[in-house]
Amino acid sequence: MTHQLKDGGQVMHVGMLARVEGEGGMHIEFEDGRVKDVKLNIFEPPRFYEGFLRGRKFTEPPDITARICGICPVAYQSASTEAMEAICGVTTTPEIQLMRRLLYCGEWIESHALHIFMLHAPDFLGYESVLEMAKDHPDVVQMALRLKKAGNDLMTVVGGRAIHPVNVKVGGFYRMPTVAELQRLRPDLERGRDDALAAVALVAGFDFPDMEQDYTYVALRHPDWYPLERGTEVVATSGVRFPVAEIPDHVEEFHVAHSNALHARFDGGTYFVGPLARYTLCFDQLSPATQEAALAAGLGETCRNPFKSIIVRAVELAYAFEEALRIVDGWRDGLAASVPVAPRAGEGVGASEAPRGLIWHRYRISEDGIIEDAQIVPPTSQNQASIEADLRTAAEKWTHLDDHALTHRCEEAIRNYDPCISCATHFLDLRVKRS
Amino acid sequence: MTDKNVLVVGLGSPDRGDDAVGAAVAARLEEMALDRVDVVTREDPTQLVQLWEGHGAALVIDAVMSGRPPGTLHIREVGDAGEPLPTHAFTAAGRGGSHAFGLAGAVELARTLGTLPTHVTVVGVEAGTFDHGPMSPEVEAKLDDAVKTAAAELLELRKELE
Question: Which CATH number fits domain A49-382: 1.10.645.10, 1.10.760.10, 1.20.1250.20, 2.40.290.10?
Fold first, then answer.
């Protein structure tokens, strides 16, 4: 870290913050010891996917949008297939939905295992990176790699590849995996479930900064199970609930000068999507074992401390393994891999719960299936305002800390969100300015 | 027990321009059907840490960025017999893996966890583009050279295991 004077204030500069995805920065300005301004700057250039989709066929978004992110491609695939099927008035089979859920379990396992252990745990255990952590905690890192591999293997069997699955299409899959292929995954999934349950207890033993936030939580809700690959409605801690198709009536995207990613308001206010929102709004739908693990870890049925998101991710990790086992064990061969989908003119919304939170797509297509309009709203852009709110709270609460400690605490506050600014490069320029 | 085969890993995303070069070179090496050589491709660098376990020698082919002309070849010994890598070496390769966890991270994590083979050679191919789409013509043009270089390194590694 270097300290330099700029504009009469004190600027701390940390180049190359690892453990965050994409190109972003943070600006905190103090005046007379009080926080004057907080900005999460996302300067990674926008990639214009929405414009690129216009004029393409309605069958193309699952492949095209999956390329937006190497960590959560299934989230994009699920939201886009849901949207297209809604527009075309097609309902897939329960088995296709189950297979989508299984694929999504693979993505949650990969993403949560990576974030919990490789990116987030070093903050709590006092290491700069997982490399240093591995020297003192090799067993934990070995476990993390095993968990992640189980997710990769699941994605490979169901999706055809460990990253950017190629087996997904509007209407279902190109090919269903066989019972034999799925059963081969079973021992690793079983071990993964046990590891993940142990991980809940492990991360619950960390020391957590005391901070509670009262933003509106928003998540999908499904009548039968914890939200993952889809939901039938959107629920919020404000008490509102409405069908997925009405999301655009409640969410307004807008541009702010300091970010290349659009911000968003929910019913006019700041909101939060992600593991804490799902957990708080859908605790009742977790399995008995994961509920028990969560309560034993000291979580209530709601969680308002963003630093404890690491425990909630571990709970969700265990749940994903349980769900994967449930689906694998109930699988049969000979099921239809897809249903036919004929285009029809219309507009529709599809949504799923990415590891980082609610993602939704809106498309309008012509009667011959050409995309006329597309809107893609990922979790991190929706969470920008709540990240800024957390930074403001953290900077005010811990303003007495020295620059290094405060900077670190603010970096942690960002990492609580596992922000996925992009998959391209990895710089976060972090500045704290005091005057 | 140490595996007597050399493990070849083509690393990178096949969709992201020159990041596909690792898998392309690995595929050509596989076609040679050399004795005591196993060839795999992977997109996620973290998988190397487990893949390497039990192997005495490994070859990794990956796209790299160092500012040299696209197609330039880099050879680096990074095995357990060598010095640790600089912290950010290779992180600019391809997507650098998820969240900046790239090849260098995998090498150092494997060293710490004791799974890094004694002999690991990285053949890096300087990339011109990581945009979605095919490899650049410059890297395509150097593919034969990359395969020859990688094959020569592979034979050296195989000798190490004799």
Answer: 1.10.645.10
Contacts of B105 in chain A (CB under 8 A): 129-131
Fold of B6-149: Rossmann fold (3.40.50)
- Neighbour count for residue B3 (Cβ, 10 Å): 17
Q: Judge: B100–A426 Cβ closer than 8 Å, yes or no.
A: yes
Chain A: residues touching B (Cβ < 8 Å):
16, 18-21, 67, 70-71, 114-115, 118-119, 129-131, 134-135, 138, 141-142, 145-146, 148-149, 152, 161-164, 423-426
What is the CB neighbour count within 10 angstroms for residue A198?
A: 14
Does A21 contact B46 at a Cβ distance shorter than 8 Å? no
| Domain residue spans of chain A | 49-382
Separation of alpha carbons A141 and A384, rounded Å: 30
Give me the residues paired with residue A10 across strands.
A5, A434
Q: Which helix (H) or strand (E) holds B33?
A: none
How much is the ipTM here?
A: 0.81
Q: What is the pLDDT along chain B (162 residues), one digit of tens a residue?
A: 578 899 999 998 888 888 899 999 999 999 999 999 999 998 888 889 999 999 999 999 998 877 889 999 989 888 887 777 665 555 433 333 344 567 888 888 999 999 999 999 999 999 888 877 899 999 999 999 999 999 999 999 999 988
**Which tokens sit at A42?**
């996302």
Match 């957990």 to its residue by tokens.
Answer: A279
Across the interface, whether the CB atoms of B105 and A131 are under 8 A apart is answered yes
